[in-house]
Amino acid sequence: MVLLARLAALFLIALANTWAQAPTANVTGTVSDPSGAVIANASVKLVNTATGFNRAQNSNAEGVYAFNAVPNGVYTLTIEAAGFPKQIRDGV
Predict the structure, then answer these.
(1) What pTM, to 2 d.p., does this model score?
(2) Domains in the chain: how many in total?
């Protein structure tokens, strides 16, 4: 009976580890101007070029944006802010 309990415990630990390895990633960054000053409230868009999956948000007061748990893949990141040219980064 003890052996069965140990095997069940090992199975549950192994199963928990497989769930922890989700096929997702985090994309984070800081929006700043050429002088290094942060840009708050910039529009940030993330689009998966193969699937069309997308997310959008604005940078916070410190210029930070974070897209958490996005499906793995290749993305295009577009950032727009008043008074600045649109920035596009392919292959993210």
Answers:
(1) 0.76
(2) 1
